[in-house]
Amino acid sequence: MEKDWWKKAVVYQVYPKSFQDSNADGIGDIRGIINHLDYLEDLGITALWLNPMYCSPGIDNGYDISDYEQIDPIYGSMKDMQLLIDEARKRGIKIIMDLVVNHTSDKHPWFIKSCQDRTNKYRDYYVWRDPVDGHEPNELQSTFGGSAWEFDSQTGQYYLHQFSKQQPDLNWQNSKLRQAIYKMMNFWIEKGIGGFRLDVIDLIGKNPDTMQMANGKDLHRFLQEMNQQTFGKKSLMTVGETWGATPEIAKLYSDPQRHELSMVFQFEHTQLDQQDGQGKWSIKPLNFYELKKVLNKWQVGLNPTGWNSLFWNNHDLPRAVSAFGNDQEYRVESAKMLAILLHLMKGTPYIYQGEEIGMTNCPVSSIDEVNDVESINMYHEKKNEGFNDNEIIRLINHRGRDNARTPMQWKGDQKYAGFSSQKPWLHVNPNYKTINVDDQLRDSNSIYNTYKELIDYRKKHLLVVEGSYSLVDTADDVYAYLREMDGQKLLVVANLSGKDQTLKLDYGVQQPWISNYNIEKINLNDYKLRPYEAFAVEIH
Ligand code: NOJ
Questions:
Q1: Taking all residues of the chain, what is their mean pLDDT, rounded to a whole number?
Q2: Which ligand 1 atom is nearest residue 144's CA?
Q3: 401 CA closest ligand 1 atom index
Q4: Angle 169-174-179 (CA atoms, 0-180°, nearest 5)?
């Protein structure tokens, strides 16, 4: 493998449960992914991040793992997985596995043994504490609501769970546990995978006694050890999920001299529609100027030693076009604008399944339609606090994780959107009749084709991968930047808003590489940008 191949890669994220069901049980599976590798090759992506498909009771859709070395039968078998790795490789696509090592399922044999008594060898694989005055050891809260401590009456102690109580936290202070994790990672590396996406990795250095959970003191030491004992010498790609990263922290992870990770996901831009410090359910309107400031801060901040990941959405976030664009009258224009803006920045771009056709959020009208454990827990908490149903459903429709998890919309003329022939595990977005892959493949002007073109530019122009980045001064709601390398200059302009904007730059008349309003020539000295208009021009 070429060293640093991931700097040139475009990663596509597959949420397997919702991608394609090949065996008519309403649940997506590995064969369904294999059946669509040609589609992904046509799009041009070169790496595939798969959400977890290991054995799991499915409390948190696979992020509660009961066996790291087996594929859950709902997705297929290890033979299918190996076939997927091999078939993807033939198409120039590397498989990135999701590595969930902050916690396991409570059904993992380690945890079952850990619960048997206080002295067994697995006790210390997890985080156990004595009650304090007959109560929880402290005030730590779980991300999914309620206390992060659960009492085990058999052994008289509490265990830590930062997510659901069926997801007990692993104790990374225990070197035996760390060795067991590295062994499991090497098991996967030997199968020929291209790397790992490391789930909530900034939590592994936790210290529940001081309540410092993210960015704990041993975090980077553990990552260096992991790097050395697993992927370090193999040119694999690694991307850490780090909700608490600042550009300074992100550089610690991604500076090649420190031998930790290739890059991290930071989430600052995805939280701009939340009230400061009040969590994901406290919503406020997105301010475009703030969005520009934050994205620019990360572009500038990680230079020259770090490396950015570039993404708008994933399986935990609302759909890109619903969160950052306009998923109604300007759906096509704003989806293309978001693609142009992001894919010409410096870093490794990620596409979440369905983003390439502009899939939207999928509103529900009652809690009975909701599947996600996080939304359901929040619903009950808010009900107890006295909120009414409408208010809570509005929050779920805005930020709930099911929005991104509805089945992939392949076909407009088939029940269940061509995802499955049977009723899917989660409702299909009714807009599949007009938003689907089939129609977009036939339309040369589709969102899909904008993504395809952008991926192609990245492959053909080293400038897009390595060129310098600088912000260009424009109106607040217009984001413009320059990429430069060896005398080549690319200007990218995006109107983030639904209002007309004026652009005046001393670059004369130019022909765009790509645009979302089909323009032949642009007079940059004086140009009126239409709602969500975006283009990239090479400056001559
Ligand atoms: C982050 C994952 O992306 C999310 O889906 C999951 O619920 C939590 N980590 C817990 O594993």
A1: 97
A2: 7
A3: 5
A4: 100
357: nearest Cα among 295, 283, 304, 433 = 433
What is the DSSP code (8-state) at residue 232?
A: G
Percent of the chain with pLDDT over 70: 100
**Which residue's entry shows tokens 């102690």?**
157
Is residue 34 within 8 A of residue 84, CB to CB? The reply is: yes
Model pLDDT for residues 355-379, shown as the tens digit of each residue: 999 999 999 999 999 999 999 999 9
Q: What amino acid positions are annotated as catalytic residues?
A: 199, 241
Task: Name the residue of 102, 143, 162, 163 whose CB sits within 8 Å of the most ligand 1 atoms, as the mutation to test its pocket.
Answer: 163
Whole-Å CA distances, 332 to 247, 397, 449, 511, 517: 32, 21, 12, 22, 10
207 bridge partner residues: 212
Q: Label the pairing between strands 54-55 and 67-71.
A: antiparallel
Mean pLDDT of 482-490: 98
Strand partners, 13: 49, 352
What's the pLDDT tens digit per position in 424-467? Answer: 999 999 999 999 999 999 999 999 999 999 999 999 999 999 99
* pLDDT of 233 over the 90 cut: no
